[in-house]
Specification:
CATH architecture: 2-Layer Sandwich
Number of domains: 1
Radius of gyration: 13 Å
CATH topology: Transcription Regulator spoIIAA
Largest sheet: 6 strands, mixed
CATH superfamily: STAS domain
Shape: globular
CATH class: Alpha Beta
Structural class: alpha/beta
Order of helices and strands: EEEHEHEHEH
Number of helices: 4
């Protein structure tokens, strides 16, 4: 069972009760305002469900703008942390540019506060999130 927060051509956000995580699926390359408003909805979902886990599926995404990557680490992350965010499983495709962008985002996170792991399959990401007690 899941609760939907957003379902558009560029992003789908829902809470997945089975893994107790907010799931964010990106499609293509959203405009900055769409990217940022979707990210803020993810914070609402974290708070609504009192969860600390996020599954981000970038397997159908195109590289995010550098400014949006910076905004994510500098603006969004502190707010998400206050909302309880502690663990992130990120699914990427084999596109080296998307992997580079994801790594760039993840390296800006304090590893003493966050668990981050990148996967190439949804099954592996889900299994890892289910194994966490955060």
């Amino acid at each position: 069972m899941s609760q939907e927060y957003l379902n558009t051509s560029y992003c789908h956000i829902h809470f997945d009760e089975d893994i107790q995580a907010v799931v964010i699926e990106w499609f293509g390359s959203p405009k900055s305002e769409n990217f940022r408003s979707a990210c803020m909805l993810a914070i609402n979902a974290l708070q609504d469900h009192n969860t600390s886990k996020v599954l981000t599926d970038n397997s159908r995404a195109v590289i995010f703008k550098r400014e949006d990557q910076q905004w994510l680490n500098e603006e969004w992350l502190p707010q998400a942390e206050k909302a309880g965010y502690r663990a992130s499983a990120t699914i990427t495709k084999k596109d080296p540019f998307v992997k580079f962008a994801v790594d760039n985002i993840l390296k800006g996170r304090d590893q003493s506060k966050f668990l981050n792991k990148r996967f190439e399959s949804r099954e592996e990401a889900v299994s890892w999130l289910k194994s966490l007690d955060v």
